[in-house]
Description:
The complex is a heterodimer of chains A (292) and B (238). With 292 residues, chain A is mainly α. Helix content of chain A is 73%, strand content 0%. In chain B, α3 (96-103) packs parallel to α6 (140-152). The N and C termini of chain B lie far apart (35 Å). In chain B, the strands form two sheets. Chain B has a six-stranded mixed beta sheet with strand order 6-7-8-3-9-10, sandwiched between helices. Chain B has 238 residues and is α/β, with parallel strands linked by helices. In chain B, β1 (4-15) and β2 (18-29) form a beta hairpin.
Amino acid sequence: xxxxxxxxxxxxxxxxxxxxxxxxxxxxxxxxxxxxxxxxxxxxxxxxxxxxxxxxxxxxxxxxxxxxxxxxxxxxxxxxxxxxxxxxxxxxxxxxxxxxxxxxxxxxxxxxxxxxxxxxxxxxxxxxxxxxxxxxxxxxxxxxxxxxxxxxxxxxxxxxxxxxxxxxxxxxxxxxxxxxxxxxxxxxxxxxxxxxxxxxxxxxxxxxxxxxxxxxxxxxxxxxxxxxxxxxxxxxxxxxxxxxxxxxxxxxxxxxxxxxxxxxxxxxxxxxxxxxxxxxxxxxxxxxxxxx
Amino acid sequence: xxxxxxxxxxxxxxxxxxxxxxxxxxxxxxxxxxxxxxxxxxxxxxxxxxxxxxxxxxxxxxxxxxxxxxxxxxxxxxxxxxxxxxxxxxxxxxxxxxxxxxxxxxxxxxxxxxxxxxxxxxxxxxxxxxxxxxxxxxxxxxxxxxxxxxxxxxxxxxxxxxxxxxxxxxxxxxxxxxxxxxxxxxxxxxxxxxxxxxxxxxxxxxxxxxxxxxxxxxxxxxxxxxxxxxxxxxxxxx
Lengths: 292, 238
């Protein structure tokens, strides 16, 4: 029983990382109706920036905050320079662009920081939390930071005018323009926020998976699974989906001997395929009907 | 002499390669109500969309002396042109009150915005009862009122109305039009009205233009248009 609870808690910790990445994916999906394959690489690059800042002597939390700011600016920059000119382009142009971004960012990180695996510090320490053996301090910290960020985002979108404007721009761009909202900039802001969320996820997972240019690949697959499970049209659903995927992945890895550590990633893909076959809109999404 | 809030000269509009308007000239008097009449496909909706840069446009449109051609939709709205679009453009997932708040997105003073929301509720009391309801669940008439309310939240100098009577029961339509007349007087807001229901539109408007396949064929004061034999036969049915 104790093992079970331990695994659930550990699953929630990694699940909260998946939840962040899933949320980042959904935010961009809401705005432009495409999945950003480069989301994980953007997070990885941000994490390298945090590492570099710390190498230069910036303390952890200083680097943490600076990196969020840099990631935000980077997200806005990518949208304005690369995506904005494409906004009426067909789906394949977007897919190719995202793959290009993926490869470019990945190679660039390797070029600057090389491909050797680097340790990444955690500010929470690795000791068990309060002497209990249920949850490690880093896991608890991960969950706490994620919850704080989700709460911030909820308040931002629910109670601020700019949050309302961003929701309006994503839900109904034509009407949003007719009330004077600068829809293009709202999309850019969405990219900035998604990149910032991703950078937090990257910095929290890096102490566990270690820092290297391909570290976010499997994380992104789990995040896709979480987003698809929760529904690509529902930010809350994506968060819940990410958490569920984290727990399921951990429990299956522990209690189903065949799966173990090696086949864990398969679970994510099984979830994606199963959801798409049986409930394509996800648990909380709405099905989109296109009038032709 | 009265001033024109909008002066349109030789306006051409197109959706991609498809040309819809072929050189319109018309004006909207400051503080007045002008209506565009015409059959389906005459280009009435397109004219309103062209004013808000939602089509490709060529020609000249001066709003209070400022050239609109070449400006983006957002910039034009920020100058004080509010558009109640075809299909109402409701933000369906948001509450009625959030829809009204979105209408005031370009304004800063929270106090004035709150006062204006109350003023909209005094015009349309039903919206107050529905304020926390998801806007997509409102009836057609309520959504139309919400769309007008949202447009007024901009404190517009020019209000573009695209078939406000569409899909409404006759009684609701009459109520809406009497409120529009009040708004025109009280808010000192000029109106450009597009309407299928010609007799209704001519009652509200003081000036009318008749469109046929992207060209203006007749124009004049509403009273005169109402008496015009060809208009009566084709659009008023008596």
